[in-house]
């Protein structure tokens, strides 16, 4: 593993097998990766990338993760969406893009990967801001989501705003703070959208400097108390980027949780 945890963000990965569009905007697309080997059709795994919803970060930095999942036999889609700093990004476009993409991708992938993908609701893997989007989608459109694996998610937007994570990232997404646009927080913040009916596992590293693990502890405790089917796996010594790095010490735990969600699904 590289000494720099961020190295995964720029590590080369194989090109995707197909790119499909779920809308007319150039960023309303998803990269598909065929599952290795042969076998029965499986539910799609949809990867929602992080980057604090900002335009500077796109789906390409999840290439190593997606390629590793495909090599493990999973059909994978890396969903792109409009982000803050570009026309249509932020509120509400970022959120509606993900809702639309998640709903449409199983059929798009089944057509592109005949015999390898079922039409069952997909498993969502979201990292950081993508973890927020996965939790939001499961809470808002639960029939479109089979299960959620949230990796270091921004699970509490109001708290992330108060902590000023990534220098105002939440305000850029929603157009202000909780006192300025309370209706938007009410609609988009996973912390207030509990209980979550979709099976959800949150993984978080204890040494995360980008999204404090405390946020996931508090979110999972509150969501569980409200009756959610949710659990937390905290990884001692793990930082933010190890969760999406197939070369990290944390990766076997990520795979094990995904396997359990897939088997249950």
UniProtKB/TrEMBL annotation:
It comes from the Bacteria. Pfam families: BD-FAE. The keyword RNA-binding does not apply. Residues 31-220 form the BD-FAE-like domain. Keywords: Hydrolase. Residues 1-20 are annotated as: Disordered. One of its GO terms (molecular function) is hydrolase activity. PANTHER family: AB HYDROLASE SUPERFAMILY PROTEIN C4A8.06C, ALPHA_BETA HYDROLASE. This is Acetyl esterase/lipase. It comes from Micromonospora parathelypteridis.
């Amino acid at each position: 593993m590289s000494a720099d945890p961020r190295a995964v963000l720029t590590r080369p990965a194989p090109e995707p097998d197909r790119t499909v569009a779920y809308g007319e905007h150039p960023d309303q697309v998803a990269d598909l990766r065929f599952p290795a080997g042969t076998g029965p059709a499986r539910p799609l795994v949809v990867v929602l990338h992080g980057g604090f919803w900002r335009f500077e970060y796109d789906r390409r930095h999840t290439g190593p993760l997606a390629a590793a999942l495909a090599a493990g036999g999973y059909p994978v889609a890396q969903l792109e969406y409009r982000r803050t700093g570009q026309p249509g990004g932020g509120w509400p476009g970022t959120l509606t893009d993900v809702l639309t993409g998640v709903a449409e991708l199983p059929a798009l992938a089944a057509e592109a990967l005949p015999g390898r993908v079922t039409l069952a609701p997909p498993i969502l893997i979201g990292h950081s801001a993508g973890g927020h989007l996965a939790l939001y989608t499961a809470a808002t459109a639960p029939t479109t989501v089979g299960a959620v694996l949230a990796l270091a998610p921004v699970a509490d937007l109001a708290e992330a705003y108060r902590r000023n994570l990534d220098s105002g990232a939440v305000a850029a997404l929603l157009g202000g703070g909780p006192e300025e646009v309370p209706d938007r927080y009410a609609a988009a913040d996973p912390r207030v959208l509990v209980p979550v009916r979709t099976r959800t596992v949150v993984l978080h590293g204890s040494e995360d400097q980008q999204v404090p693990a405390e946020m996931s502890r508090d979110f999972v405790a509150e969501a569980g108390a409200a009756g959610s089917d949710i659990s937390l796996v905290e990884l001692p010594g793990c930082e933010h980027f190890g969760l999406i790095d197939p070369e990290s010490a944390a990766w076997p735990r990520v795979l094990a949780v995904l396997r359990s969600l897939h088997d249950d699904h």
